[in-house]
Amino acid sequence: MYKLFLFITLLFVNISLLAKDFNPDLMPEPLEETGFKFPDYIVNTLENGLKVYVIQDKEQPVVSFRLMIFGGASVEGTKAGVAELTTSMLTKGTQKRSAGDIAEIIDGMGATLSSSATSDYWTIYAEGLKKYESTLLDVMADILLNPKFDTQEFLKIQQQTLAGLQFEKSNSGELAQALSRIAVYGKDHPYAQRKTEQSVNSINVNDLKEFHKLWTKPNNASIAVVGDVDPDIIVKKLEELFKNWSKSEVPAINVPEATPMPKGIYFVNRSGSAQSSIIITTNTIPYNHIDLERLKLASALIGGSNGRLYQTLREKYSFTYSPYGFHTSTKFANRFAAVAEVAKAKTDSSIALVISELNDIISNSPKSEELERVRTSLLGNYNMSFENSLFIASLIQNEEFYGKRINEIKTYASKIKSLTPNDITTAVKSYINPDNAQIIVVGEPAIASELEKYGIVFKYDLDLNALSGKDGKTEKISLSAKDLINRYEKAIGGKSNVEKITSLNVISEAELNVGGQMLQGQVLSQKKLPNKLYNVSDFNVFKSQVWVDGENAWSSQGDQESIIQEGDDKKRMFFDAEIFPILTLQKYSYKLEVQGKQGNSILLMATSETGSDKTYYFNADNYLLEKEEFLIDSGIGMSEIWSISYSDYQDFQGIKLPTVQVTRTPNFVITMKSNYEINPEIEEEVFKPQK
After folding, report:
1. Last residue of a domain, which of 431, 460, 489?
2. Do 505 and 682 touch, CB atoms closer than 8 A?
3. 445 and 581, same structural domain?
4. Residue from 489, 457, 473, 462 nearest 603 by CA
5. Is the previous residue joined to 530 through a cis bond, with omega within 30 degrees of 0?
6. Residue 101's CATH number
7. Residues 670, 645 contacting (CB under 8 angstroms)
8. Are residues 313 and 431 in the same domain?
9. Which residue, 433, 426, 460, is CA-closest to 445?
10. In 3-state terms, what secondary structure has residue 240?
11. Number of folded domains in the chain?
12. Is residue 34 a part of any domain in this protein?
């Protein structure tokens, strides 16, 4: 009892002494940074071409092996899912061991054995006690070189994979990530390919055998050994183990550059969603690019555990619990993504906040204190990761595969430390600029219209099939392009009434919406046969004009002098000068194709040698034009889809013309309410700029 009393007394004395120097209002000072040394390792190449990395660590009697084969999901072609199915089958039986045998051996040793595939490569990983090293290696080599690919086991894995696809379809976050890859890389890019029920069902055991045979070659692989090993002994053991694994020719891996889809809102209709999954994403750089470290630090500042997204979306506005951002680490192309799950009523506001934060970093470099806090966290986590043998093995193997010299890995920390606030601003402006971003939303269909202020909305179903645009699902119809245009001509008044029109004035009251700011203006368009046009758009703060006199074309912006147009620009302006451009498509050498019926619209694709391709949407009931879409070069390396919708058709002297026209672009929306004058007198000098 006395000892207990003495202990309690001393405890309270110590606490009271500590309390004298403790101020709960002051943040504790961080401890001094401890020194960090990149682990030593050796590199050997076996006679068959297999590269071996050995990192000796005798702290614990444990050893791990990571075998890496180059060629993952990006080389699957049309058989999306074959890499994943192949690696899933490796532990399901070999020529001498059943799946049960393998599981029993691994469990009996208390070891780990797994295999998986990424976009660029696939791996086998094994870890266990030092005393089981030989057995672990033997099983690992067996599943690598002698997989059985049993049909019954394959059917089980195939069904599990199909069930996983159903889960992905029900997970809005998974859908958003899949669609973001399509939008950033392009729908046919290898990094955008995804498993579907159709692709998985098309795969058979022979496909797995062929994939395995094609890529499983020692001169297309490396193995990293980490732990309680003697480097010389383990290299000899590996040489003996893989002596019959012969090198042979390896197919080239050709992953093309990303071809981002047009800037816009990529929206997945998910009825009944109380939340929206949001991703704002940009195409960035290959892994071996000199700016990679800048991007990693910028990504941490934006989307790290205490980054800008966390501070605004969660802490300040309480829109979401765990927003985050990341930068991918694939070899040939990468993307940045800012991600949040928000209440559907906060979808618009959340997108605006993310864009605002990115623009703020571009306009105002982050403060040194903020950057230092992010840098310290990033490097602290990086250094602690070296406690994990898998991290060490992955780092050394991956970096060489990605084209990084080992010295670049060793100097990673010093590079991060050398980056300045201006470096971060430069990285965000160059690679994470919201002006170049795609916006992905999975949510309630009713909110899609609220997002049109950010650009064209491209709608998708839960299988990520396009529901709108030229890539949308269509129903085949037996109607030629010529017949469709004839029906359109008849719908607007008929050939005889059309031919009576020799000139046309269109006077419009216009409203320009730029990021929520409204400008009022007027637009006047005057046309006269043949190919004569004067168009002026005046919004007070700026003015643009176009002239076409049948022989030449000019344009001007603001108070600038008019500039004569040549080449493709001139041809496009001549086309626009037609009173009824659609009726002259073939005159301008457009190739026409009816793509089918989409919803209640019939789609006509008009392809031009000048690159001014257009998609026209005609109402399937009355054949009036409802919308047209066309690509515009943004001038910053991205194409943009612009759309013009037409509605409220009224009769003007026997011709039906739209009185409401809405032009939507990624950066602005113009709504025009128009009146028409048929066959007005227009002086010839109107169609030339006045000196």
Report:
1. 460
2. yes
3. no
4. 473
5. yes
6. 3.30.830.10
7. no
8. yes
9. 460
10. helix
11. 3
12. no
The answer to whether residues 437 and 516 belong to one domain is no
536/546 Cα distance (integer angstroms): 7
Provide the residue range defining the domain that includes 517: 481-687
Is the Cβ–Cβ distance between 623 and 490 less than 8 Å?
yes
pLDDT tens-place string over residues 209-249: 999 999 999 999 999 999 999 999 999 999 999 999 999 99
Residues 200 and 334 in one domain: no
Q: What is the DSSP letter of 478?
A: -
For the CA atoms of 301, 302, 307, 311, what is the dihedral angle to 10 degrees? 140
Q: Are 612 and 425 in contact (CB under 8 A)?
A: no
Are both 325 and 235 inside the same structural domain? no
> Is 288 in the same domain as 354?
yes
- The mean pLDDT of the chain is 89
Phi-psi map region of 589: left, alpha, beta (phi>0 left; psi -120 to 50 alpha): left
What interhelical angle do 292-303 and 421-431 show, nearest 10?
90
386: which DSSP letter?
G
pLDDT in tens, 65-112: 999 999 999 999 889 999 999 999 999 999 999 999 999 999 999 999
Q: Does residue 580 fall inside a structural domain?
A: yes
CB atoms within 10 A of CB 73: 21
Number of helices and strands in the chain (H, E): 20, 25
CATH code of the domain containing 640: 2.50.20.10
Check whether residue 153 and residue 298 sit in a common domain.
Answer: no
In sequence order, what DSSP letters do the residues of 402-459 get, joined into one string? TT--HHHHHTHHHHHHH--HHHHHHHHHHHS-GGG-EEEEEE-GGGGGGGGGGSPEEE
Question: What pLDDT shows up at residue 474?
Answer: 75
Provide the pairing of β-strand 503-514 with 669-678: antiparallel
CA dihedral of residues 562, 568, 571, 576 (deg, nearest 10): -70
Name 231's Cβ contacts closer than 8 Å, sequence gap at least 6: 42, 54, 56
Residue 470 DSSP one-character state: T
Give the separation between CA 478 and CA 594, rounded to whole angstroms.
Answer: 9
Strands 265-269 and 335-343: unpaired
3-state secondary structure of 49: coil
Rounded Cα distance, 488 and 481, in Å = 11
Rg of the chain, C-alpha, whole Å: 32
In-domain check, residue 250? no
Distance CA 547, CA 686 (A): 8
Total length of the chain: 691
| Residue 344 and residue 280 share a domain | yes
Residue 160 resides in a domain: yes
